[in-house]
Automatic annotation (TrEMBL), chain A:
InterPro entries named among the record's database cross-references: 4Fe4S_Fe-S-bd, 4Fe4S_Fe_S_CS, FTHF_cligase-like_sf, Helical_ferredxn, LUD_dom, LutB/LldF, NagB/RpiA_transferase-like
Record's keyword annotation contains Repeat: yes
Lineage per the UniProt record: Bacteria, Pseudomonadati, Pseudomonadota, Gammaproteobacteria, Salinisphaerales
Bias-annotated ranges (Basic and acidic residues): 17-38
Polar residues compositional bias, start-end: 1-16
Name of the protein in its database record: 4Fe-4S ferredoxin
Location of the region described as Disordered in the Swiss-Prot/TrEMBL record: 1-55
Keywords assigned: 4Fe-4S, Electron transport, Iron, Iron-sulfur, Metal-binding, Repeat, Transport
GO molecular function: 4 iron, 4 sulfur cluster binding; metal ion binding
Short name of one Pfam family: Fer4_8
Transport in keyword set: yes
GO biological process: lactate metabolic process
Automatic annotation (TrEMBL), chain B:
Protein name: Fe-S oxidoreductase
Ranges for domain Cysteine-rich: 4-83, 128-221
Coiled-coil residues: none
Organism annotation: Salinisphaera orenii YIM 95161
GO molecular-function terms, A-Z: oxidoreductase activity
Amino acid sequence: MSTNQPDPNATIQSKTATREAQPRPVKAPDGKRVDHARSAKQFLNAPEHAKSHDTRVWAMRTKRDKQAHTIEEWEELRELASQIKTHTLTNLDTYLEQFEANAKANGIHVHWAADGAEHNRIVHEIFKEHGVKSVIKAKSMLMEECGFRHYMDSVGIEIVETDLGERIQQLDGEDPSHIVVPPVHKMRSDVARLFAEQLGSDPDNDDAHYLAGAQRDATRPLILDADAGMTGANFAVAETGGFVVCTNEGNADLSANVPNLHVASIGIEKLVPRVEDMGVFIRLLSRSALGSPITQYTSHFRAPKQGGEMHIVLVDNGRSKRLGMERFWSSLKCIRCGACMNTCPVYRRSGGLSYGATYAGPLGLILNPSFDLHRYSNLPFASTLNGSCTNVCPVKINIHEQIFGWRQVLAEEGHLPWTKKTGLTAAGQVLASPKGYRMAIKTTNSALKHLPRWALYNRMNAWGEGREMPSPPDNGTFHDWYKRNRLNGQAKTSAGGANE
Amino acid sequence: MRIGLFVPCFIDAFYPDVGIATLELLERFGCDVDYPFDQTCCGQPMVNSGCHDEAAATEALFVKNFAKYDRIVAPSGSCVHQVRDNLTAIEQTPEVKHVRENTLELVEFLHDELQVEAFPWANFPHRVGYHDSCNTLRNLGHGKPSELHGEYFSKPRTLLEKVAGIELVAIDRPDECCGFGGTFSVTEPEVSTQMGQDKIADHGRNGAEYIVSADSSCLMHQSGCAARIGAPIQFKHIAEILNGASQ
């Protein structure tokens, strides 16, 4: 704990209170759609945060480009990684059984969980058997999916996040906003204020080293006293029954090695056949994620430590169902690098929490609907379909085509908002009729020309909130021009009539 | 070879000069160009929102209008992408396949098919920032996107470099989306306009007097953003410059 403990309330007012407050997303009530646009608007209404977020996340994309472009065979590596994942997913049953048999032979206890609830129950049972009261945990998106921390809160077991970013989010009661850098939407001043409240550090000191030190002082004793450690896994190797965890802080190694009990939660899609496959994935992972050649720690776990106990919980939680979806199964190739988020111009402008789901950004647009189609029915529309996500994906998931595909599923299954659906149905009818179409253009241009500004730029005009409308051309449409200049004023078909 | 000129709906309504420039440019190269009068739209607004069934009648009309041509050329990357890659709401008859396989975006047609070497009539003595629309860049293959590893190429810049007087300027985020995105522009207006403002600021910061693109939809969005804040930057479709517009 920091020795410098001023009265937090007094000092907060002095400096940090003048800074822009951290924007908070609008939480959708249970059973309601997440409103990405509304939360994004709130995020953009905090311009310092929004600009800092865009700049920082774009910097990761830039570094990624630099790293990727130094490797001549980069695109071949992506193709190879994609093929290894496709092969594994095609033979997933075989590889899972092989993994389980080898892990057991190494002395690891292996459990199977059909969904998040079962995962949480299994882990709870293990903890009960060992009388576990406090747990140190490395970052895991799977455990976020399972709502693991909330569950453990409800049964009175203390979870301490050991990843600095994830710890910040835990202390703030927020979900991670990015899968690799969880608090990337926060500014240092936000962290200084949070640590002052939660850890008693100096709210006016937003030096990164000072803040990291304050957190370390506060958390280290909890790590040393924990009864159990939890990690996720980046890869599970079928031929050895071992698994690989990549971190930059070494926190997974603390979580795995300090307590005698280590529980690893692993999604069934994490399998790769052979250890040598790591030679492909490790080269891709951190370069894609942060633009660094490799993570600081790449830890291979294969058996419990001497005198310790190791458990693996293999979790499905919707993965088998997704594997059966013809258009969307390849999303299971994902290695959770976050490159698609970093390149996504919408993610960078709206912040990860605006997605209101475990997964943000392009990856979130294609994963979340498979968990709850209605709740996440707006998300596939939080994209311009620009396609850069597909190009940066190290395992070549056709992300933007899947976003496009989910839109079709949503429309077919009746999850589009009523106004959108009726508007597009009407548009489809007008655009299928040459006469109706010419009439619509005439009406639009006439309105743009003759309506006063206050009537055009009303509350209903989303285009006009931040943009001017195009002005109608002085000499009419192209259609008019063509008739005058190429056909001597004669319309070739009846459709021209509507415009005369 | 008979060419059917496809002038997408919003170009017809708001940017007739782009349609005129495209037609005149093709005629300068001796193309036999026809403009089918009953044309409306390619179906993209419905399809990009997932409403494929609602687009079927529009798609059928498109095919009916253009089936008789050897090539269909349009000055709009996103519409060409729709026709070529996503016009699937109707039965894929030989006629439909013919239309889909032979629809080309103007830059592709000039660069790949006509292999134009010179635009002797063109002179554009200005600093130009070229805007790669996402559809032309990543779906039609106008160039190498910055995030992919490989040999650099850019078909539109290759064409623009043949224009006398032009100075092409580089920007900080060369192929970042401008935020138009079709219905995205109105369902996510704040993010969309923020992206548009960031885009024009990037061009302005790097000294561009004009933003030029092969997609009028991106330009409509960006010019709307620029007009709202009074930014002095101007906008032109690449067809207008290649056809000899001087300002």
